[in-house]
Prior knowledge:
GO terms for molecular function: glucarate dehydratase activity. This is glucarate dehydratase. InterPro entries: DgoD-like, Enolase-like_C_sf, Enolase-like_N, Enolase_C-like, Mandelate_racemase_C, Mandelate_racemase_N_dom. By secondary structure, the protein is α/β, with parallel strands linked by helices. The protein folds into two domains: about 5-120, Enolase-like, N-terminal domain (Enolase-like, domain 1, 2-Layer Sandwich); about 125-350, TIM Barrel, CATH 3.20.20. It contains 13 helices and 14 strands. The strands form four sheets. It has a seven-stranded parallel β-sheet, with helices on one face. The longest helix has 18 residues, at about 100-115. The protein starts with a strand and ends in a 5-residue tail after the last helix. The model has no long low-confidence stretch (mean pLDDT about 95).
Amino acid sequence: MRIASLEAVPVSIDVKPLGDGLGVAPYVAGYTVVESAERLVIRLETEDGTVGWGETVTNPSPSVAVDLVEDVIAEEVVGRSVWEIERVVDAFEYPYMRITPLVSGVEMAMLDALGKCFDAPLHQLLGGKVTDSVPVAFCLGILDPEESAEQAAAALDRGFDVLKTKGGLDADEDVARMRAMHEATDGRLDLRLDANQTWGFEEAVRVGARLEDAGVYPQYLEQPIRIDTAGSYARLRNRLRTPIAVNEDAYFPYNLYELLKRDAIDVAVLDLIPAGGVMATKQLAGLAAESGVSLSHHSSFEFGIKTAAVLHLVASTPEFTLAPDRVNYALEDDVIADRFEVVDGEMTVPTEPGLGVDVDEEKVAEHRIPI
Length: 371
């Protein structure tokens, strides 16, 4: 089954405002405020008409991302058999320009088409699922302590067991928000605090110690200090009882390896797009698990296409022991026909061939970004 065409469409969908169901906009993440989700939808078609779908980021810009997929990656992909995934992924190790996230989206489309070719859901191609549903973490931007407490209580009432919130703008405010959420839920909600590399070493120590002194023990502090600082992470972990997680560091195999070698982290928050695809993430998961490190999966307002890929990956990879972050429920719309629902804090793993989702091409056209 050879690939006949590869197309990319940039799409933007608004995020529902706070107070509208599971809405979270404006989602404040450090100095970034998210009110809409911008993604690149990839459409692959084989010579026999089988269509595979992928999803990735629009970086560095929608027009550049489209050109890289259709003019650069397509040169290597079109004409290949749909199962030649390793050859495609290995063909783009450019030393001066990192296009790994775009290649990851193409890999996703190839896996979707391959599953449809064999009439098998993706999780079967990955070794078989170990669960039918995946617990997910509710994600919340930076709010004041009172609003954060209200949102935490609402998330608990909706069946979530885990809440991840952003931080890093004001350490005092971060501590106050975490304490307010902990008290509002009587400690029944596991909390994650993501500082997005904004703290210095001393500040990270003080925040962690202040939370511990207040009886608040987050599930983990995520990327509290900058990447490429394995020695600092090792010292930070020795100073605190709170588990330490990395996210951006986990996108690079060498960084993750160094952190594991130094016994510097407790959790790796992986992401199949910057990591190089589903298969590459499987390799990282095995490396981390052998070192006794727990795993979760990152989220960045993905549509239903990538959400399906994450659910297949997590359900077929027992090393993922912590709930993945998810925010797709907060979108005003989606490009898939039947949107994923969160029931008692969990999402059901698709069972249809490939990714197991039907992409609505009219929705893709409706939300297309002009370039």
